[in-house]
Amino acid sequence: MNSARFFTPFLLFAGLTWPASAKNVWIDTDVSIGSPIRETDDAFALILAFHSPEIRIAGVSTSYGNASLAYVDLVARDLAWRFGDSAHLSASDVRAGARSTRDLGHRSAASDAIAAASNRRRLTYVALGPLTNLATATQLHPRPRPRIDQVIIDGRVDDGEDRRV
Question: SS3 letters for 64-112?
């Protein structure tokens, strides 16, 4: 296992410097762990975020990417059920989003929840998977767009190299 890849989610959250008050964070993920899938980075990042006193998780959404939306949603709900108490999250707080790139512009529980959360408060959006849910939320609900102050992306560019943006 590439240790740099393993520690990336830790560095993503540990490296953020917040003011004294907790930041409102929305996490969008394509988490997929278990057999036969071994992508542990998103799960590690979620568990760290659930336990961080420096952020307040406004919501979690799921998307295709590392696995099908059904599997990703199942894993995210399980993690929220097991570890979400410290962040005041439950499995029912996870919102399913895009099944593929073809869902861009099609309403989902995730796109509606992202828009609703950003209407209530300013957000930092952390993308651990494809950006389809955010793109759809801003396309269908243009009003909340200015209330998303920062977008943090943990992803790959077309050449397959890991890049932090």
Answer: CCCCCHHHHHHHHHHHHHHHHHHHCCCHHHEEECCCCHHHCCCCCHHHH
Give the full edge-to-edge strand order of the sheet including 148-156. Answer: 94-96, 55-62, 23-29, 123-127, 148-156, 162-164
Q: Please tell me the distance from the alpha carbon of residue 139 to that of residue 9, in angstroms, as a whole number.
A: 28
**DSSP three-state, residue 52:** coil
Q: CB-based contacts of 116: which residues, under 8 Å, 6+ apart? A: none
pLDDT at 8 over 90: no
Strands 32-33 and 23-29 turn out to be unpaired
| CA–CA distances in Å: residue 116 to residues 63, 64, 140, 148 | 18, 22, 12, 12
27-81 residue pLDDT tens: 999 999 877 777 889 999 999 999 999 999 999 999 999 899 999 999 999 999 9
Check the CA dihedral 99-103-104-107 and report its sign.
negative
Where residue 50 falls (left for φ over 0; alpha for ψ -120 to 50; beta otherwise) is alpha
Give the span between the Cα atoms of 104 and 135, in whole angstroms: 7
